[in-house]
Amino acid sequence: MVSETKTNIINGAKLIVDFLESEGVDKIFGYPGAVVLPIYDELGKSNKIKHYLCRHEQAAVHMAEGYARVSNKIGIVLVTSGPGATNTVTGILNAYADKTPLVIIAGQCEEMGCNNFQEADMSKITSSCTKKNFVITDVKNILSVLKDAFKIAQMPPKGPVVISVSKNILMQEFQCNPIKKEFIPNLTVETSQTNIIRMIDLMKTSNRPTILVGGGAYASSTLIRELVHICNFPVLHTLMGKGIVDDLSIGMVGVNGSNLANAILEDSDLLIVLGSRLDSRITGKSEIFLPHTKIINLNVEANTSLNVNIHQEINGDLNIILQQLLCNIKSHQIMFNLKFDWIDKIESLKKLYSNENLSYISSVDDRLVTETVLSIIHDYTQKYNPIITTDVGQHQILTSKIFKSKTPYNFLTSGGLGAMGFGFPAAIGAYLAKPDSLIMNITGDGSFQMNMQELGTCLEYKIPVKILIMNNSSLGLVKQAQGRFYGGRYYQSDMINPDFVQIASAYNIKGIAIRTVDELKQALNKYITKNIPVIFDIHTVNTEIV
């Protein structure tokens, strides 16, 4: 006798929560509203999933990003229709640019195209910044859509997926079979032997080879180390590649990189790019980027560097390709002899830029210098191996150069989009992924005010992130550009700030105003490892150039 599969009568909202539980989801970031209340009602009954009530939907996505990047899991966001959904767009685009796996479940009107209350077509709005959009129009499709969404978000290149669903679908009941967790295979795309041999030939005949490590190589540090040990090629990194092999890297390249790293990059005759799309912040004017350098681009995506002249492109799983490369090198006992001229040139460049300043002051000022402040913070906290999040601006550039990262998740920043307001909520998400770590959000006064309402989230859930505000009462990078390109006409780049210590007090959070080096050291000594959220309001000079 054949046993029948047991079915359950279940509504759409319950099915969504049951699926999330079956996938091991234990954290959701969101903000409720009428359309998604059926899901919230079911979440309230779950003893496996904790929902974190954010104070703004953009911040909810950034929290999910921080959580996903540190935990190496998928981030889940739940928001209502209309403005609740559209408020997520900046975060979604940020996750898309930086390849962070997210699933955003958004409420939707029952009838679209009728000018209904809170009507917003998220499938059209986010079509250019998601891997996939789904609109659920039948309750029977919920399970298949969720399975596809999770698979697509996590398959390289990772990224965000948006699911839109209306209230009537969430409340509709139907007969459903028990949920079975499906195995999602890892991407194992290798390249041809011809490609590997061609790459090795280029490596052997090069006079000035260099390796550039990007954010797409975050899971390949062991193999990169083995390759460098064998070939002894110099290593550079991008902003998103920070933390992967920092101890091997000479420095960061790009518009905001070091002069040393950029000089080595420009002198190379062969550049092996590992997991970087070579965007405009790296290349500058792409038509004049490395015109005499042969570039080998290893990336999971094809045609990621359309404006750059790529000599050889190899697409596939970077780990598999590196394994193929190493296997060939070892089996054929290939030796790479780095030319003495290249070694000497690199050493001479190191001497030339040995006293390179990270910043300078355009006029005399008694206030603290951000470079000095960050150096003190780095020296004091490096023993704790902190997880650093930044926003966007001068503090981001200096932090990326001063702080050393031991792993890719020790340094979180908005690389592809450059979104102010990313750092603070991302720090909250990072803490929820690794609660035993010291989490520091290094931010600017402009960036912090983009999402400082999340102090309420810190208060409610007792999240002990440390917020270090470089408070120069200006938009430093904008002001710097006005001084350089617009004749010093500083328009709308200076601003009057609130008292951040008083704002902290309003949220029952500790705040400290810091104006001297001694005050900074005392505050770090007293509060940096305390299990409470703290705002360090550090008053810095507004004439610093980075």
Question: What report would you give on this structure?
Answer:
There is one protein chain. The chain has 546 residues and is an alpha/beta fold. The strands form five sheets. It has a six-stranded parallel β-sheet, sandwiched between helices. It is globular and about 75 Å long.
Features:
546 residues, alpha/beta, six-stranded parallel β-sheet, 22 helices, 37% helix
Short précis:
By secondary structure, the protein is α/β, with parallel strands linked by helices. 37% of the residues lie in helices and 18% in strands. The relative contact order is 0.11.
Tell me the fraction of residues in β-strands, as a range.
15-25%
**How is the main sheet built?**
6 strands, parallel
Average pLDDT rating = 92
Strand order of the largest sheet: 3-2-4-5-7-6
Q: Count the E strands.
A: 22
Round the Cα radius of gyration to an integer and report it: 25 Å
Straight-line N-to-C gap: 77 Å
Helix count? Answer: 22
Query: In which range does the helix fraction lie?
Result: 25-40%
Query: What structural class should be given to the helix and strand makeup?
Result: alpha/beta
Could you outline the blueprint of secondary structure elements for this entry?
Layout: E1 8-11, H1 12-22, E2 27-31, H2 37-43, E3 50-53, H3 57-71, E4 75-79, H4 83-86, H5 89-97, E5 102-108, H6 122-125, E6 132-136, H7 142-154, E7 160-166, H8 167-171, E8 173-176, H9 193-205, E9 209-213, H10 221-231, E10 235-237, E11 249-252, H11 259-267, E12 270-274, H12 280-283, E13 294-299, E14 312-315, H13 318-331, H14 340-352, E15 360-361, H15 370-381, E16 387-390, H16 394-402, E17 411-412, H17 423-433, E18 439-444, H18 445-448, H19 455-461, E19 466-471, H20 476-485, H21 500-506, E20 510-514, H22 517-527, E21 534-539, E22 544-545
Parallel strand pairs: 2-3, 2-4, 4-5, 5-7, 6-7, 9-10, 9-12, 10-11, 12-13, 13-14, 16-17, 16-18, 18-19, 19-21, 20-21
Antiparallel strand pairs: 1-8, 15-22
Helix pairs in contact: 1-2, 3-5, 3-17, 9-13, 10-13, 15-16, 15-22
